[in-house]
Structures are given as structure tokens and as C-alpha cells.
């Protein structure tokens, strides 16, 4: 069984922080950090969380650290439908609804789609039913030939952008399932691909005889204390030119 000291050392090395730097940030001695990592000192739950906070450890992994140290998990993981998360769910729904007529969706740490707004529906109509079986994965939708891939004009650019995002995510918080998805969908095609852009790299989708140019932003909860909220993000798509904006706005008027 992996000890709390070994886990803390793994996170410290992942963040490329020295024992001294961690000690200064956490307001403890470097010797104490060393003793905890080597198992010669048993940290309190408060100390585990203090060190984890300085290392920006995700909530799911903070629970793992606490368990390894002999303490009960601190952070719950509730489904979005749970009463305790009702306010957060309503906030997500408001953000999605307010972003219409442009597409927006909520996805979890493995890029599985949790919620969407109505502007996403026309795109899903063109996807193979096999890809719409839960959990619906955003990476698969974007890169699988049965999904959006045949519609994406600049697929190599989009693949590169997705690849960079997933690599950053894995570097910040390793996840075996996401790593396997990366190896399957992204790693084989990333070598030798370069992107040139002055400002933003749009996703260019050919739809109904026209090209739609979209860029996206990511929104997360600022101070989550629940694992589910810690791991979800909203991806909001915006038109990159007037013609693309008109497409979505005219669709709304037609409805």
C-alpha cells in the first residue's frame, strides 16, 4: 500500500517543487516535510490538507492522501442531481441557457458530456448513434470518423489543440482512463503537426453548405468543495466571424 509520504512526494515532484519550497509555502520546516515523505513522521489531517493545498492537489486525490494517512475522506462526490448540488446545477443550467444561440456544454475530467444547451442538438443529429450512448465523450465526438471529424475542415489543427489540452490536464492530474483515451485518439497523429495563428485557433465546421468558425472558452467553479464540482467545466463556443454568428442567430429566429 502506498503511504501518504510517498503520495505527497509524487505530487511534489509532479509540481516540480523542492522540499524547501513546499515547506516555506506551507509554513513548516523542510525537515518536517522530509520526515513526512520518508514515513518517519505521521502528519495530522490538517497537515495533509495544508500540504495538498500548496501542491494544488485535486479534491479526489486529497481524499486519497487522507485515507493513506489513516483519516476519513473529507470531500464528498455527489451526482449533479443531488439536492446538495441543486444551486450549482441551476447555475450551470443558467450559464448554458444564457449562452444560446451558441453551443455550450458541461463535461467532466474524462471529457464525458454531462449537460448541453439546445444549440448543441443540431450537431448531435449528425453523429452516429453509437457515439451517443452514455457516457458521451467530447473527444470521441470531435475526433471519431463517426462523429464530427468528417465535418471539421481543420481537423489536424483541432486534434493538436485537443492534444495540448489533454496533455496539460494529465500533467496537472494524472488519470489512467484519460491517458488511454489520449493514446487512442490523439497521440498517433500529433507528431509533426504545427499550428500558425495570430490570435485564436478556430474550429472550422462545414455544415449545410457553409463553413462555421468557432472558438471556445472554459469556465470552472472557483471554490469547489465537492469532487463533482471540482472536476466539471463548461465549454462555451463563440462565432469567430460575422457569417458564423448569423448562422446561429438566424437558426434561432427560424425556430
From TrEMBL:
Listed GO MF terms: DNA binding
Residue ranges occupied by any HTH cro/C1-type domain in the UniProt entry: 8-62
Protein name stated in the entry: Helix-turn-helix transcriptional regulator
Organism in which the protein naturally occurs: Actinomadura barringtoniae
